[in-house]
Amino acid sequence: MTLIAFHDGNDNSSIGDWHNCALKFDKEMSFVPLTNKNADQAEIALVWHPPKGRLAELKRLKLICSLGQGVDHLWKDLNLPLSIPIIRLVDPNMSRVLSQWVLAVLLDFLRDGPFYRSKREKREFCKLSERDTFGMKVAVYGIGAIGSAVANNLEKLEFRVTGWAQTKKPKLLFRQETGTGAFQRLIATNFVHICLLPLTTSTKKLFTKEIFMKMPKGAYFINAGRGEQIDEAGLLDAVQTGHLSGAALDVFCEEPLPNAHPFWNEQKISIWPHVAAQTNPETVIEQIMESIYAIKSGRIPKNVVDPIRQY
Ligand code: GLV
Asked: pLDDT, tens digit, for every residue of 166-196?
């Protein structure tokens, strides 16, 4: 039997679904909430925002699996047992739905959805002239599995896409740039900016107020990376002064977004409750099972995270 310590970062109400999915693959999989004493014996941890210090108490632990694509939630635990391999989920289904979210919010903005919805309330049947989007310059920051799916889809719609990453990625079909100089250049020359970066010490607060103000006037910003990558007050200012046309955000420094947060009052900032791509047990269970089998047979599982690089 394999004992899996589970924590969904919430009320653990999803534990039954995860267990049922795992049982379809392997009748020997048993789930226990991480916070339960019995989890002390677990060999596998399947977790999202685990309570700090708890994973270090699991003395038989062989694998930590993030319950999402990001692993930044794990680094918040200063006692995280770093000698244990950590894997993140890489799921084509999640990449696809996330890229659909990006397209939905971008096209809604470009086709003036907020304007027409506001006119509906007053039953005003009036038109704005259409934006020319052919060859519109779009920068995608972060071009791993998700960013590449986003960039490829945008290219199909004839946007002029450039992907940016800290290091060069092989075999990409779209333009790519790397490094700090290129980052500054892309910021200054692209009309749409899409952040899909992992949260690491080098991407924290990457989008400062100065960076937002360097974007061309009227630019649009989309964030499905992490809230901590942006200076929220700086973004708000850039939108409220009319420098940016607006933003669509799926991630925030504090989640749930607090009631009193000024973003709620700014109509030009579209707020999404971290739903751009939700972890789907049905589509990711196979890779989790494969990772467990790999660890148990002494092989290195796929998508192991480098704690130094932090992703
Ligand atoms: C969601 O934010 C994830 O990391 O999967």
From this structure: 999 999 999 999 999 999 999 999 999 999 9
Distance CA 46, CA 33 (A): 10
Q: Which contiguous run of DSSP H or E holds residue 117? A: helix 113-121
Say if pTM beats, i.e. exceeds, 0.70: yes
Q: Do domains 2-91+279-296 and 92-271 have the same CATH topology?
A: yes
CA 207: distance to chain centroid?
Answer: 16
Domain ranges of the chain: 2-91+279-296, 92-271
Q: How many angstroms is it from 203 CA to the middle of ligand 1? A: 16
Is the minimum distance from the CB of 70 to ligand 1 under 6 angstroms?
Answer: yes
pLDDT digits (tens, 9 = 90+) for 53-77: 999 999 999 999 999 999 999 999 9
Q: Which atom of ligand 1 is nearest to the CA of 89?
A: 5
Fold of 92-271: Rossmann fold (3.40.50)
Q: How far apart are CA 141 and CA 147, in angstroms?
A: 7
- What is the 68 CA–ligand 1 centroid distance (Å)? 4
Domain spanning 2-91+279-296, CATH class: alpha beta
Residues 303 and 295 sit within 8 Å (Cβ to Cβ)? no
Condensed to tens digits (0 to 9), the pLDDT of residues 75-121 reads 999 999 999 999 999 999 999 999 999 999 999 999 999 999 999 98
